[in-house]
Q: What sequence folds into this?
């Protein structure tokens, strides 16, 4: 039998170009972390004057962008920082990465020339300064393209039809509607653009010194790809903008090699010239890889700037809610995902307002309040929410005399709850919403287990609320960033697939040694008692009724 083990004494480098930072994780050939690094955009590159890595445009409602060049500058900076780790870059066999999903980069006509001749004596910033036809990339937090969404859905025969082809109905942050907005509002700029990358393929392009393909998984987040064919959908392309296919270039599987590393990195940072650049993908697909989510019925919850819920499936069933993407480590499988825009920034907002800006106080409040919060239900949207589609606003309700079954006497409440109840209403609200929507999207109830990741997964009080609400054990992973770890793992997977000359199941790579690697996970909260779980089910039903009426009153249909 051929040997498909990783070469001893080699490293695999993964990045995560996310909203607030650029992170890197290096794995050795036993899949253990040997180095990691981070550049925080607001503090590490303060001259861009971003807040949380973004600009929220005060003059255009919902417009949220990031300076493309900040991502470019961060790349040199993180490589300089990593070189100080004394790790021999010459031993890095493959590089891959994650990008925040959906964000788009517009390369000006003629820029492929600049990209293919990067001079190692100059910085990336100096050389790419004039490479873009748009300097501020629209990102996933943007919600300014509702008009384009409705037009695309209409041209494709309706929201459901678009979802069935591309895996999602049209969403404001998805790349297709964003590109359509550029075409509709700045046709000259669109004309002056030779290539449109998404954040993942953009970073991969710099690494190979050429335009990289868009991988199938991140490509599923564009409203442009036929997820079953894993090819551009002609119908969606035509509904979006003319001449788009040539600006997007090719699609490729996530496990494919995008190219060899460019001479810029060989000469400036001493990478080996044979180092492979494996296709970059989205942060969420890479988290699915990094969390080793291999069993249907497992649920992963990532608690970051956005909160996301993932499941894997062989049998996609896209609908009007949630998303279906190609699974980045299964050539034929899919992953399903729910995304909440109001994640950690909203938890921080409530913490700052009600809990003296302290997580200790926040946790104390969570522990001292009873489950079901005396019937108090809260909806907290600091940013325009994706699921459900609701504008900024905080809404509070009380079910009087709530004992876990009777739902009579619902009252809307204008004023805030007392601070401890406010904290519980936020946390219960976020996870009841996740449970309700995940059940609608096919999650078994209870799920087999939950793997929690992201910043807030370090918070034990939050984890035990999750265990009580979902009624299953919650595991955590001892790693800071599953997206960059997942990218490093995929770098190794891509390296092996390349050696084999085709797809290899990723589980063959780690076989039974998972527990001995940095990919292991530990039990952090035990399933809540089943009586409480069913009371939460009743509470959740009420929450969904209120949510539906809020959407009817304030949201889009
Ligand atoms: C996914 C999404 C966010 C970003 C965050 O659809 O919009 O999770 O990927 O980086």
A:
């Amino acid at each position: 039998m051929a040997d498909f083990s990783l070469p001893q004494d080699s490293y695999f480098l993964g990045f995560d170009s996310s909203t607030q930072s650029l992170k890197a994780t290096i794995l050795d050939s036993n899949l253990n972390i040997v180095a990691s690094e981070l550049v925080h955009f607001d503090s590490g590159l303060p001259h861009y004057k971003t807040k949380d890595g973004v600009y929220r445009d005060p003059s255009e409602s919902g417009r949220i962008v990031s300076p493309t060049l900040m991502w470019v500058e961060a790349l040199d900076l993180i490589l300089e920082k990593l070189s100080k780790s004394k790790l021999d870059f010459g031993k890095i066999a493959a590089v891959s990465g994650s990008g925040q999903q959906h964000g788009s980069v517009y390369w000006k006509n003629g820029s492929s020339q600049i990209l293919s001749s990067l001079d190692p004596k100059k910085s990336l910033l100096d050389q790419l300064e004039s490479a873009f036809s748009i300097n501020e990339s629209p990102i996933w937090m943007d919600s300014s393209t509702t008009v384009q969404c409705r037009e695309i859905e209409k041209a494709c025969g309706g929201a459901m039809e678009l979802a069935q082809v591309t895996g999602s109905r049209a969403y404001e942050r998805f790349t297709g509607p964003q590109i359509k907005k550029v075409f509709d509002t700045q046709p000259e700029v669109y004309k002056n653009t030779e290539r449109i990358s998404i954040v993942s393929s953009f970073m991969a392009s710099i690494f190979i010194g050429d335009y990289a393909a868009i991988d199938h998984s991140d490509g599923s987040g564009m409203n442009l790809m036929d997820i079953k064919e894993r090819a551009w959908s002609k119908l969606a392309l035509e509904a979006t903008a003319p001449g788009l296919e040539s600006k997007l270039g090719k699609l490729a599987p996530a496990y494919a090699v995008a190219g060899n590393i460019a001479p810029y990195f060989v000469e400036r940072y001493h990478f080996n010239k044979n180092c492979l650049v494996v296709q970059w993908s989205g942060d969420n697909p890479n988290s699915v890889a990094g969390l080793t989510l291999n069993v249907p019925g497992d649920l992963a919850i990532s608690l970051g700037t956005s909160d996301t819920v993932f499941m894997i499936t062989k049998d996609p069933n896209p609908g009007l809610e949630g998303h279906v993407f190609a699974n980045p480590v299964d050539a034929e499988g899919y992953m399903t995902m729910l995304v909440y825009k109001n994640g950690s920034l909203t938890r921080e907002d409530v913490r700052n307002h009600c809990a003296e800006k302290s997580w200790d106080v926040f946790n104390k409040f969570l522990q001292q309040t009873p489950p079901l919060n005396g019937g108090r239900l809260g909806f907290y949207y600091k940013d325009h929410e994706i699921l459900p589609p609701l504008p900024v606003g905080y809404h509070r309700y009380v079910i009087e005399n709530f004992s876990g079954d009777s739902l009579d006497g619902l009252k809307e409440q204008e004023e805030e709850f007392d601070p401890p109840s406010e904290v519980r209403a936020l946390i219960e609200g976020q996870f009841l919403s996740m449970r309700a929507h995940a059940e609608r999207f096919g999650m078994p109830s209870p799920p087999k287990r939950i793997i929690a990741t992201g910043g807030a997964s370090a918070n034990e009080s939050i984890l035990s609320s999750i265990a009580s609400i979902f009624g299953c054990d919650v595991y955590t992973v001892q790693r800071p960033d599953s997206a960059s770890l997942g990218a490093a793992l995929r770098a190794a997977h891509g390296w092996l697939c390349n050696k084999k000359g085709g797809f290899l199941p990723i589980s063959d790579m780690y076989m039974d040694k998972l527990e001995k690697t940095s990919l292991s996970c530990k039990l952090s909260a035990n399933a809540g008692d089943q009586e409480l779980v069913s009371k939460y089910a009743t509470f959740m039903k009420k929450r969904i009724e209120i949510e539906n009426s809020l959407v009817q009153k304030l949201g889009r249909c």
Q: What stands out?
A: Residues 18-19, 100-102, 140, 173, 221, 282-284, 306, 308, 339 surround D-xylulose (CB under 6 Å). The first helix runs from residue 41 to 44. The chain has a mean pLDDT of 94. Residues 344-445+528-554 form a domain with the Nucleotidyltransferase; domain 5 fold (CATH 3.30.420.40).
